[in-house]
Amino acid sequence: xxxQGMDVDWQEESEESGDERRKGRPERRSVLTEEQxxxxxxxxxxxxxDSDTEEVDLxxxxxxxxxxxxxxxxxxxxxxxxxxxxxxxxxESLTMLHELDLNDNLLTRIENLNALESLEILDxxxxxxxxxxxxxxxxxxxxxxxxxxxxxxxxxxxHLQGLxxxxxxxxxxxxxxxxxxxxxxxxxxxxxxxxxHNGIEVIEGLENNRKLTxxxxxxxxxxxxxxxxxxxxxxxxxxxxxxxxxxxxxxxxKNAKELQTIYLERNPLHQDPQYRRKIMLVLPWVRxxxxxxxxx
Length: 296
Description:
The chain has helices spanning 34-37, 275-282; strands at 9-13, 27-31, 55-57, 77-79, 99-101, 121-123, 143-145, 165-167, 192-194, 214-216, 236-238, 261-263, 288-289, 292-293. The chain is mainly β. It has a 14-stranded mixed β-sheet with strand order 1-2-3-4-5-6-7-8-9-10-11-12-13-14, with no helix packed on it.
């Protein structure tokens, strides 16, 4: 329910519609849709939320400040994407929070997250963040999304040893004028790494990330496929839109017997008339080359 004419929809999900954590009990969600909030800046004081709610969705409501969530002791998912929030604050009481979505806001710093030790998913994409910081206490974090920010260096992730997915696409990852992959050595459980649309020139720094199943370094400045032969669990490799020209580089993936998908289009070697055939000769177990499946 809501005051001042603001509609809040209460939705109950059946046991079959939820994942394992929802089974055996109905879930209550507070949802303010885009249509309801369109052209009307939301005063958080005008919304009354059930203190027992587990999921709050306030997407695209022109919310300017995080506040008035203190009573939501049981909330597990908080979505505040596509608002005008400038600062992460007033979340200390949400100790049960498992997922926080602040995608597409006006944030410039990662801060005030220390109390969220149960957090598993954090999305801070499409903001104006310049560095990775303030994540030291989030030891249960499994998925971190930092797409399309202004981050210039990968660092301060050593405490996130349970991290399984890291998405850093469309940033400005550089170190001393040289593009560089670094700061990942402690992420031994990392399974998915996305670094597309940056300025990376050298594939390096992945020695301890042996559990990687997905590696996306598309749309960078990589000239050579190297330092990959230890990634035996790799299933998807995205290297399209780089500067790779040497066919011998494919030998780096010979140990990746689980590899199903490889993207190498729009590299210099893509001009070779025997492009697909040469990939199949080196990696005969691959089932998809670029967007086309391999005929068996």
